[in-house]
Write a structure and sequence with these properties.
343 residues, Beta-clip-like, 3 domains, 4-stranded mixed beta sheet, 11 helices, globular, SET domain-containing protein, SET_domain_protein, SET_dom_sf, SET_dom
């Protein structure tokens, strides 16, 4: 059980937020809780009758906690006109439905939605210091992914795609994902020079995603042409095909995501593990069984960062690189001597 290391307090136009009451090291379980109420479907497709039934079945204590949650109307910076005007919704109890919409979290196991008393109060940031994890057992956890100082707000990212979008693109896309407010996180409202550099990194992350996957992010509404992006990037890099520069491009993607704080879900740890392993297998295919100095330095740096991030992953690294991949890079000695078998 996590020892409480936070407090909930008002944050002006953003309603309430969660703040650290002491220094929280990276990789710390901040809170684990069970939902107040669970609904079997997406909160934007639920009917008024289902809302009423779920609410009516709550205990008196749960009703009190649910009623204390904020709504769109409680937050002066939120635009609430037409937020709930979808044809599937019967607004028989907008007071309850508003709270469900603002505070629900997707269930990782059955596609439904859950409302949590504490976890719903974490505000979004495009460069968060914590992450939420659905355990698949009708509970959710929040873990720190970087060191959080006493008095600092604890934030999470509401949508992983923000790490591939510039600030202007995020402001355009997030309302289309159902977030009817303007992001005012530290990154989006920070110094213009820092935001400009972050935008450059995130634009490149998106282009690398297209290069590797052959298509733009599925959640974006203003799609980029995969063919145009690939042609432009290959021309800039000066190579004939992406296969000629797989390791450099994967290293670039890992470094960019890492720098932007996108260490959620094990993706970055997996990137570092993949490029480290590809370097090993490439050497073996060439008949080289001791890494030359430059490759050895890169391999050791990538392996070290992989395991640093792996140690921070919630749930003991359940969402991190496969065990076989980790073992393939784990046992290589510091001098870069390779065994003759491929993993």
């Amino acid at each position: 059980m996590a020892t409480q290391c936070f407090e909930i307090r008002a944050v002006g136009n953003r309603g309430v937020g969660v703040f650290a009451t002491r220094t929280i090291p990276a990789g710390t379980l901040i809170v684990k809780e069970k939902p107040i109420v669970t609904f079997p479907k997406n909160s934007f497709k639920i009917t008024g009758e289902e809302v009423e039934l779920g609410y009516a079945n709550l205990s008196a204590s749960s009703k009190s906690r649910f009623d204390a949650l904020r709504t769109i109307i409680d937050m002066p910076n939120r635009s609430h006109d037409k937020v709930f005007s979808t044809p599937e919704i019967d607004l028989t109890n907008p007071r309850v439905l508003n709270r469900l919409r603002v505070n629900s979290n997707a269930c990782s196991d059955d596609g439904g939605y859950e409302v949590y008393d504490t976890i719903c109060r974490f505000n979004h940031a495009c460069e968060p210091n914590a992450t939420r994890l659905g355990t698949g057992r009708k509970s959710m956890e929040c873990w720190s992914i970087s060191k959080i100082q006493a008095g600092q707000e604890i934030t999470v990212c509401y949508h992983d795609a923000v790490f591939s979008l510039t600030a202007a693109e995020r402001q355009q896309e997030m309302p289309l994902w159902g977030y009817r407010w303007k992001c005012e996180c530290d990154l989006c409202t920070g110094p213009a020079d820092e935001l400009r550099v972050s935008d450059m990194r995130r634009k490149l992350i998106r282009h690398l995603h297209i290069l590797f996957n052959g298509a733009d992010l599925p959640v974006t509404h203003n799609k980029l042409s995969a063919q145009a992006v690939k042609k432009s990037m290959i021309a800039q890099i000066g190579l004939k095909d992406i296969s000629d520069c797989t390791i450099p491009c994967m290293w670039m993607m890992a470094t960019l995501l890492d720098t932007e704080g996108a260490v959620l879900g094990g993706e970055v740890a997996n990137h570092y593990a993949e490029i480290a392993n590809q370097l090993l297998n490439g050497s073996r295919r060439k008949g080289i069984y001791k890494l030359p100095a430059p490759e050895r330095v890169n391999f050791l740096a990538w392996r070290k960062r992989c395991f640093e991030l792996f140690a921070l992953l919630p749930g003991g690294g359940e969402n991190g690189p496969p065990v076989g991949l980790l073992n393939a890079i784990r046992f290589i000695p510091e001098d870069g001597t390779l065994c003759t078998c491929e993993h």
